[in-house]
Amino acid sequence: MTRFIRPDEYGRFAWGNGVVTLTFGAYSNSPVRLLGLSGRGMRKSGPTQRRARPIVELLDPSSGTNDNRLPLTETVAGRCLRFVSARVDEPEAAGDGAPGAGGAVLDGAGTARPWCLHRLEIVQFASFDDLRPTGRTDDETPEPLTAAETPDRPVPARGPGITVTTVFEAFPGLSAVRTYTRVESDRPHVIEAVSSLSLTLPMDANDGDAGHTRLLWADSAWAVENDWHAAPLRDTALRDRNFDINPGMSSSRVAQQSPSTWSTGRHQPDGVLEVSSASTGVPAFSVMWQIEHNGPWEWEVGEDGPGLHVVCFGPENEDHQWFTDLRDGPFVSVPVSFSIAAGDWQRAVTEMTLQRRALRRAKAAELGRTTQLERTRSLIVYNDYMNTLFGDPRLETELPLIKGAAKAGADVFCIDAGWYDSTDGGWWDMVGEWQPSTNRFGKAGLAGLARAVRNHGMGLGLWLEPEVIGVRSPLASSLPDDAFIRRHGERVCDSGRFLLDFRSQSARDHVTGTVDRLIDEFGVAFFKFDYNTVPGVGADDGTGSAGAGLLGHCRAYLDWLDDLRRRHPDVMIENCASGAMRADYAQLSRLDLQSTSDQCDPVVYAAIAAGAGMTILPEQQGNWGYAQPEMDDETAVFTLASGILGRLYLSGFIDRMDDARLALVRDAVALHRTVLDGQRTQDLVPWWPAGLPRFTDDWLTVGLRPGPLTGAGFGRDGRTGQTDQTGWTGDGPLSVDALPSYRSYPPAGHDSMSVDASHGSYGYITVWRRGGAASMDIPLPDELQLEQVFPNPTVPSHAPSARPWTIDHKDGIARLTVADAASPAARVFRVVSRSADMSFANPGSTVSSSVNADSAFQTSVVPSTAANPETTPDALDPEKRAKVERYRELNRTVEPGGVVCAGSSLMEFFPVERMVAEAGLDINLHNRGVAGFVADELLSCLDECVLALRPSRLIINIGTNDLNDPATTNDVLVARYDRILVAVERALPGIDVTMLAYYPVNPDVAVDEGIRQCLAARTNERLCSANGAVRALAARHGARFVDLNAPLLDDRGRLRAEYTMEGMHLNEAGYRAILPAFLDLLRG
């Protein structure tokens, strides 16, 4: 729905999405200004802000500024703009905020995005006569436009001039806004800076002042990313100059900027202001901003006396050599998002986290890959680089790592740098052709290594640096000059590399052809895109300014990424630039994973992992977990703990690990999968129970807790002892969209939250101790408690030296005491309700999950007609029917609450009851497998095989017989399996379901023609593919997917001959091989 809005009798008009509200003032003698701003938990009404700033800063050289000390924020052209119109686009009904609901909005580059949301366009105009220099003038008292002076629709501006459109966009239900600016003219006119965000903070409405405000900002450099700082604003450049005696706008400012395409290589394009009440000292509200650009940017915080403002830019002339002439067409600034909420800085970070998720989903919807985004968000990657091969891959080192990664449960095996090197290490300045090495991978070559990866149930990943050509590469001579970034007529060179200019069709064709070839030839399912060199200020050919050339290149690169994702929606892409030197949300809204650092020291890495959630979504934080076989238990736990609450990125010589160390890695993988599922189902957001992590702190903490739409929050600042008091109150019903009700944080004046005991789980906390005191206090409401989940205390043999920490809960504090203060240590805890039965054992802690990426990356959707025709018990053959009847009789004496094993012959032939008894386990366990069962037959007999026993746990392995039919696709199999799970969940709410991976087969030992015919359809490749589909189904149902296959595999990934009767079924030795892992599963 589109409409124009008119200012009221005071010249004011408001816009928002029901959660965030912006109030503007329109004037006859002044530009539009932001008078009021509120977000989640804040009052929507209140006094308007004194000395509110214009919503646009616009610098042109002919009019300049009113204050040469503030070259970007006192622009004359910005103050010459006058209101023309305000147009609103809104979702027309509840649910229109979903991807693909129709409509289109403009991205920062002015292109349409198919995502329906709340949108406001404010148009202003300045004539060239108004822009002529007339001498310095002070701001006049603004005279409001009245409704009578503003038409219902815009009228054409009189005479030549500049038209400026400020765009605000808000996703339904979020307390965040995305904004950018479009500038156009009907004749040539040069501009040197235009703001994307000019935000006046609502200080007067919230009893705030600069003296009670904190600024949070971050430095960043190679191997020391996300180094966050917090300081009172008066301890920065914004000193108190006494505005009573020295009135007017301050010429001081706090500013950060990035000079080139390492957008996060010096500072983060994010910041936070936390404003406390001057009368109570309690945080009243907080604001966070992020500049979403993969090139140069600048933000600044300034003081208006009274009042504070935040202004954000993309490239500009003074620092980035950027200008543009409007005769070349409209200019659209880079987008900026900001969030606002009542309470401390963590509330603003929470809202920005939700905004980042929405940006990812919106971009995925635009590119037609929403399903692929959801499917790949839980895949786990092993990469052979960090503290392992360091860019020197060879056949003899890769094959053991492939086997080890599969045992650990990785879904993707990424071969990092060097796979293209035929010169034994001299590749740095020769890259660009990206042809596989001729001397590293034996006769089978890279293709053979790729097959080995897939044969072990993983997708192939390759490292690639697509934006560079080495100066010694043949392509440096064969590609035309226009393919490269150039200045002063010469190619720009950095560290022996030329940089491709993605405005050039020749450059794009080369990179597109390279990526397509690698996917087609080697079946690449994952790329790690690296970026280790930069072009400086940019390219000056054909643009007039180097900064404009660089901006054009950056936007062309994003367009190329969009095209790549449309054509290859299943391929995952990691964003890397010497670690996290380009970790901005222009990139990350499009890509799947972000390398958080190249840091090799796990103790230093903890600080990076602790702070990464300030700028990167948890599910995108590629935090290295590089456990090594020679590490002591505490160090191995320490490095793995850094990845569990983010996106665990495995490396290390996993092939050399003993059983205990490998089991520890598998524990981390299993817990990490549970966390990833929680991120999806509960919108888990970062939380810092001990306050902002400082890079040099002895103790570091970071957690995940349910977001404001899905769960309750908790906590106080562990450093200051101050309670998180101001909360998300919901602030009344939303005006648009029926959203889930908000769970409130504690209202002002309460030290703890009201806990809903039925909720059970409230998230996770990772704690690192790098030195100092042996104990740490974490504020925690008395209704909650911490339970250690990593290392898993129920299986101490996996890390025997890493003994559990002591946890004492008392008076709203959880005191953690390390078991051994002699070395660094880390633990992961689950936060649970004291009143809920949450005795926790790490799901699947002793088993691996090996998934075939060919299935995990597929795009097909389960058709509604996929299931087989309905089967009834009477339709069973006599042998199956007799077994079902026998089970019906046996069930009469079964005590409820036990464990039931169900499935086909692979389950029936498992002498699990006898083996469990021999192991001394006293478990109420019953095997109800039926040889020959297909999925629909089990569904028809679900009462006899599962439901009548009223179990608390179900372990199921069904579907291999379905795969004997070549017509049974993964989609059909999943549809049949899904019907079973739905029926179980309806009849037995809360049941714990474990789905076993299908066992491998070995056709070489098949004993007769019938078996050989079965195995012709039920191949290992097909079983691996089916396992990927079943694992995804398990994730959808909140079930555990457990792979017991590691001890069963021979060197070729087949079922070991000594473990099978005839190539298809396990014998007694085979079942005994998987028994230890199965017993651990039962104990958990």
UniProtKB/TrEMBL annotation:
Keywords from the UniProt entry: Glycosidase, Hydrolase
Record bears the keyword Hydrolase: yes
The protein, known as: Alpha-galactosidase
Species of provenance: Bifidobacterium pullorum subsp. gallinarum
Broad class of enzyme this protein falls into: hydrolase
Biased amino acid composition, Low complexity: 720-732
GO biological process, one term: carbohydrate catabolic process
Record-linked Pfam families: Lipase_GDSL_2, Melibiase
InterPro entries: Aldolase_TIM, Alpga-gal_N_sf, Ester_Hydrolysis_Enzymes, GH, Glyco_hydro_36, SGNH_hydro, SGNH_hydro_sf
GO molecular function list: alpha-galactosidase activity; phosphatidylcholine lysophospholipase activity
Polar residues bias (residue ranges): 860-871
Region (Disordered): 131-158, 711-733, 860-879
Domain called SGNH hydrolase-type esterase: residue spans: 915-1073
E.C. code: 3.2.1.22
Superkingdom to which the source organism belongs: Bacteria
Lineage: Bacteria, Bacillati, Actinomycetota, Actinomycetes, Bifidobacteriales
CDD domains tied to this protein: GH36
